[in-house]
Structures are given as structure tokens and as C-alpha cells.
Automatic annotation (TrEMBL), chain A:
<comment type="similarity">
    <text>Belongs to the complex I subunit 4L family.</text>
</comment>
<keyword id="KW-0812">Transmembrane</keyword>
<keyword id="KW-0520">NAD</keyword>
<keyword id="KW-0472">Membrane</keyword>
<comment type="function">
    <text>NDH-1 shuttles electrons from NADH, via FMN and iron-sulfur (Fe-S) centers, to quinones in the respiratory chain. The immediate electron acceptor for the enzyme in this species is believed to be ubiquinone. Couples the redox reaction to proton translocation (for every two electrons transferred, four hydrogen ions are translocated across the cytoplasmic membrane), and thus conserves the redox energy in a proton gradient.</text>
</comment>
<feature type="transmembrane region" description="Helical">
    <location>
        <begin position="40"/>
        <end position="63"/>
    </location>
</feature>
<keyword id="KW-0830">Ubiquinone</keyword>
<comment type="subunit">
    <text>NDH-1 is composed of 14 different subunits. Subunits NuoA, H, J, K, L, M, N constitute the membrane sector of the complex.</text>
</comment>
<comment type="function">
    <text>NDH-1 shuttles electrons from NADH, via FMN and iron-sulfur (Fe-S) centers, to quinones in the respiratory chain. The immediate electron acceptor for the enzyme in this species is believed to be a menaquinone. Couples the redox reaction to proton translocation (for every two electrons transferred, four hydrogen ions are translocated across the cytoplasmic membrane), and thus conserves the redox energy in a proton gradient.</text>
</comment>
<dbReference type="GO" id="GO:0042773">
    <property type="term" value="P:ATP synthesis coupled electron transport"/>
</dbReference>
<dbReference type="GO" id="GO:0048038">
    <property type="term" value="F:quinone binding"/>
</dbReference>
<feature type="transmembrane region" description="Helical">
    <location>
        <begin position="69"/>
        <end position="93"/>
    </location>
</feature>
<dbReference type="GO" id="GO:0050136">
    <property type="term" value="F:NADH dehydrogenase (quinone) (non-electrogenic) activity"/>
</dbReference>
<keyword id="KW-0874">Quinone</keyword>
<keyword id="KW-0813">Transport</keyword>
<dbReference type="GO" id="GO:0005886">
    <property type="term" value="C:plasma membrane"/>
</dbReference>
<keyword id="KW-1278">Translocase</keyword>
């Protein structure tokens, strides 16, 4: 365990922050520009994983385990959200035969 | 704390009742269980509460007051659900259980003392609500509402979590007290990560409460969801989201006021403007209520802008007044949709002649939402405006007063339709449960408006 922490600490913290920020931004852009509900869903997972990475890095740098425990909470939540999200997508696919979010525009103004 | 345990066990009990086909027992058991939870939570009223469960939660007066009001509102909404879910599907026990699970998440949200509990509370609440928004499986609008709510909810959770992570990175703690100590140590030299973290956290939470410019999902989701669930989302969930927001800022971020106050002022002004102006152009009652809920978030943000020891009280009064009036409006809406099949303003024509009781309660609700004196809504607005004035935000108050006048215009559209437009219509049948809830809520609205003292300095 000691060696893992040491090797994580071998890289400056700023690199982790930058990497996570880039992955997170890719996720945000994916949510905003993609039109397929499943891809949007994957982009959200990307955002959550960027958060997980950053939490682990901070946790090692602070020498505090609570950050890593938080990662487990996020993973559990991501699994629950996948279950709900895919169920909702299946329900919509049965009614419309499509997962494109552009047909979901009947509610407006 | 025992309220949280009671609600969770109650939800499991209801699932078992559904399993053993005891459908008649569902509603009474849910109502009695929630009343027990309400009493249990009020019994924990303690001004010297200490954090429990290794500093995870703090059941102080703020938490007791807000869990009390959310449980109370849930009782009113569940009482309206008589025969409502049966029309949608034959498996009704799950719906009650899901509402109660989301209420359990809400109790966590108003009593957290650690950011991980905030996150878990929000997620327990949201995941149940994603399902509830889509329970009309064949209805296209309900499908769309569920998907939009789900995608927006998951997206905002990601943003919120990134904010939490950055705050952890700066301060080394998820604990509200720890973060506060870190900021107080040297407020001028906090890490830039913390500022980014606060911004992202505020953005994530404003998605959840539906404050402009992060409001665009609100009208679609409220309109598409089944009306009873919309009532739940626009009252209980909104109050809880706001309580969580306020608790975070009051506990931890108060020393950094200069940084976040401009953001909140911008959000408040935008919410007022977008909510009120767009509501004027609505033709349908339900969508009008959705926009009006955005504008009420704008008023409630005043308490955060003028943050001091009594902000929690002002939010509490405003939230209670707004929620009770909104429940009346949704109660009438459910009856109207069920029996007329339409919720445009024209379908209210001549309601006062056939259903004087419904028209009277709805009028009281609309007056309260518009903030006319002698109703609870006036007291709420009065407290908010006086708070903002006490911190010299004069232009903000003038702007809000102008918006309140626009509000009167669209709320009175309903009253005018009910009383002054004649139309031949059939009398709506009002079940006993509806009569009780509507009458009681109207009484509460008037009582708070005439005699506000007994809740105005509660917390």
C-alpha cells in the first residue's frame, strides 16, 4: 500500500487536477452536443469517473481515507443510476423505437 | 433521527403490504406512519444538538423544522393520492414506497453535517423521483419528463460532485465544520480550488432547486409528470433542495460572502424575470404553476443574499406558505384533469357557480401565491423583502416588487376565469380526502397570514 501511495505522489498534484478537468470537460461537452440518449448517458459516467480519479488523488495527497470511501459511494450511485436510466431508455424505446432525444420535444412553451 | 428510521421502515412495510395484496390498507398505513414520523421528529427539538454518527449528521432545530415541514407536506400530498395511482397501474404499493424513500433522502438532505451525506441524500431523493416522473409508461409526455429529469439530474450530480471534490482538495475535509475552520483560518488566502468548488457546488444545487439560468428542465418535467408527482416535486423537493442549499452556505461558506453574493443576485434576478414574464404567456394552468415555482425560487434566494442568523426562518416561512398554496392549486388541478381532461385557463370558466368550495380554496391559494395581505404568501414576501432591505439591496427589492405585480396579473387570470366568465359545465365531484386537504390548507394559509407570530420566529 505504501508503494502505491508513493508512486501516486511521485506525480505532481496539478497533473491529476488537469487530467480530471480535461476528462470532466469531455463529459460535459458530450452531454451538451450529442443527441443520442445512450451516448449522453456514457458522457455522464465519464464525468463521474473524472471525479473518482481526482478524489483518489486528493485522498492520497492528504493522507486521508475519507476521499476513497467517497469514491465507493459514487460507484454505488453510478450503478443505481445505470439501472434506472436504462429502464427509462427501454421504456422510451418501446414507445418510439428510437433513443434520439430530438424526438422528445413535444413539451414546449 | 428516529423520523428517518420510521420513514424507511414504513416504506419497506408498504412494499410488503403490496406483496400481500392489502391494497385498502396502503393509504391509511402510509398516513398514520407519516404522522408518527412527524411527531417523532418534532420531539427531537433541541437547541443544543451535537453532531451524531461520527459527525455525519446534525439534527438541530433547522433540521427538525425542515424535516417537519417536508413530512407535513408529504402527508397532505399522499392524502390527495386516494384513487390516483389506481388509474395508472395496478401495482400501487411501489409508488407509495418510492415517495417515502425519496422522503427519507430529503430528511438526510436537511440534516447533513458532511458533504457525503448531502450527496447521498440528494441521490436517494432523485433516483426515486426519476422513476416517479415516468410512472405513466404509455404516456409520451411522462416518458419525456422522466428522461429529461434523469439526464439533467445525472448531469447536475456530476457537476455537484466535481465541486465537492475540489472543496475536499482545498480543505482536506468533507465535514462542514472542517471546511468552515479551513476558511476561517485565513479567509484572504484560501486555495483557488475552493472558489471553483463553491461555484460548481452552487451551480449543481441550483439545477436541483430549478433556479434560472439552470431552470430549463423545470417546465417540461413538471408538465409531463403525473400531476400528483409534480405537486410533490414543486413543493417538498423544492423546499428540501433549498434547505440543503441554505444549510451549506450558512454553515460553511458565510465568510466568503463577497465571492458568491454576486452569483446569487444574478440567479435571483434572472429567476424572477424569466419565471414571471414567461408565466404570463402560458395557456395551461400546470405550466403556469411550473414557471411560478421558478419565480418563487427567485424570492427565496433573497434570504441567502441577505445572509444572517434569521435567514433560515425567512426561508421556512416562505417555503411553508408557498408549498401549502401550491398543494391547493395542484389538488384542484388533479380534479380538473381527471374529470374535464384539460387544464387550460378556459376550463376554469364558471367553476365558482358549480363548485363554490373549490373556487374559494383556489382563490385563497392564488392570493397567497401572489402575496396579497392577510394570506401566508404576504408574510413570506414581507420577510424576504425586509431582509433584503436590511442589507441595502434596494434595487433588488424594487425589481422584485415590480415582478410581484406581474405575478398578480397571471394569478388573477384563474380567479377571473372562475368567477366572472360564465359557461355551462358539470359539477366536479370532490372526494372527502380532497375536501379535507383543500379546506385544511386554505385554513393554514389564512391563519398564517392573520397571525404569523407562531411560526415567524421558530428556528
Amino acid at each position: 500500500m505504501e508503494t502505491v501511495s508513493q508512486s501516486i505522489q511521485g506525480i505532481p498534484l496539478n497533473h491529476y487536477i488537469l487530467l480530471s478537468a480535461i476528462i470532466f470537460t469531455i463529459g460535459v461537452i458530450g452531454v451538451l452536443i450529442r443527441r443520442n440518449a445512450i451516448i449522453i448517458f456514457m458522457s455522464v459516467e465519464l464525468m463521474l469517473n473524472a471525479v473518482n480519479l481526482l478524489l483518489t488523488a486528493f485522498s492520497v495527497y492528504w493522507g486521508d481515507a475519507s476521499g476513497q470511501v467517497f469514491v465507493f459511494f459514487i460507484m454505488a450511485l453510478a450503478a443505481a443510476e445505470v439501472a434506472i436510466g436504462l429502464a427509462i431508455l427501454t421504456m422510451i424505446y418501446r414507445n418510439t423505437n428510437s433513443t434520439d432525444i430530438n424526438i422528445l420535444n413535444r413539451l414546449k412553451w | 433521527m428516529s423520523a428517518l428510521i420510521t420513514i424507511t421502515i414504513l416504506a419497506l412495510l408498504l412494499l410488503y403490504l403490496g406483496l400481500f395484496k392489502a391494497k385498502k390498507a396502503l393509504l391509511p398505513v402510509a398516513l398514520i406512519g407519516l404522522m408518527v414520523a412527524l411527531v417523532l421528529s418534532l420531539m427531537e427539538w433541541d437547541s443544543n444538538a451535537a453532531p451524531i454518527f461520527s459527525n455525519m449528521m446534525l439534527y438541530d432545530r433547522f433540521a427538525v423544522a425542515f424535516s417537519g415541514i417536508t413530512i407535513f407536506l408529504t402527508i397532505l400530498i399522499i392524502a390527495l393520492s386516494k384513487d390516483y395511482f389506481e388509474r395508472i397501474s395496478s401495482n400501487v404499493a411501489e409508488y407509495y414506497a418510492l415517495i417515502l424513500f425519496s422522503l427519507a433522502g430529503i430528511i438526510l438532505m436537511v440534516s447533513y453535517h458532511n458533504l457525503s451525506m448531502l450527496f447521498i441524500g440528494i441521490e436517494i431523493m432523485s433516483v426515486s423521483l426519476y422513476i416517479l416522473a415516468g410512472i405513466k409508461k404509455r404516456d409520451f409526455a411522462s416518458n419525456e419528463a422522466a428522461l429529461k429529469y434523469f439526464l439533467m439530474g445525472a448531469f447536475s450530480t456530476g457537476i455537484l460532485l466535481f465541486g465537492v471534490t475540489l472543496i475536499y482538495g482545498a480543505s482536506g475535509s468533507f465535514d462542514l465544520e472542517g471546511i468552515k475552520q479551513y476558511i476561517l483560518k485565513d479567509p484572504t488566502a484560501v486555495s483557488p480550488l475552493l472558489y471553483t468548488g463553491i461555484t460548481l457546488l452552487i451551480v449543481g444545487l441550483s439545477f436541483k432547486v430549478g433556479a434560472a439560468p439552470f431552470h430549463f428542465w423545470v417546465p417540461d418535467v413538471y408538465e409531463g409528470s403525473p400531476s400528483l408527482i409534480s405537486a410533490y416535486m414543486s413543493t417538498v423537493v423544492k423546499v428540501a433542495g433549498f434547505a440543503a442549499f441554505l444549510r451549506l452556505i450558512m454553515f460553511s461558506f458565510a465568510p466568503l460572502q463577497d465571492f458568491w453574493i454576486p452569483m446569487i443576485i444574478g440567479m435571483s434576478v434572472l429567476s424572477l424575470l424569466i419565471g414571471n414574464v414567461t408565466a404570463v404567456y402560458q395557456q395551461h394552468f400546470k405550466r403556469m404553476l411550473a414557471y411560478s415555482s421558478i419565480s418563487h425560487v427567485g424570492y427565496m434566494l433573497f434570504a441567502i443574499i441577505a445572509l444572517n442568523g434569521s435567514s433560515d426562518n425567512a426561508v421556512f416561512v416562505y417555503a411553508a406558505a408557498y408549498s401549502v398554496a401550491t398543494i391547493i392549486a395542484f389538488g384542484v388541478l388533479i380534479l380538473l384533469q381527471g374529470q374535464v381532461g384539460n387544464d387550460s385557463f378556459d376550463s376554469f370558466n364558471g367553476l365558482a357557480r358549480k363548485n363554490p368550495f373549490l373556487a374559494l380554496t383556489l382563490t385563497i391559494a392564488m392570493l397567497s401565491l401572489a402575496g396579497i395581505p392577510l394570506t401566508a404568501g404576504f408574510i413570506g414576501k414581507f420577510m424576504m423583502f425586509s431582509k433584503a432591505l436590511s442589507s441595502y439591496h434596494i434595487f433588488l427589492v424594487v425589481f422584485a416588487a415590480l415582478n410581484a405585480m406581474i405575478g398578480i396579473f397571471y394569478y388573477f387570470k384563474v380567479i377571473v376565469a372562475m368567477y366572472f366568465k360564465e359557461e355551462d359545465r358539470k359539477e366536479l365531484i370532490v372526494p372527502v380526502y380532497f375536501k379535507l386537504v383543500l379546506g385544511f390548507s386554505a385554513l393554514v394559509t389564512i391563519a398564517l397570514g392573520v397571525y404569523p407570530d407562531f411560526i415567524a420566529s421558530l428556528i
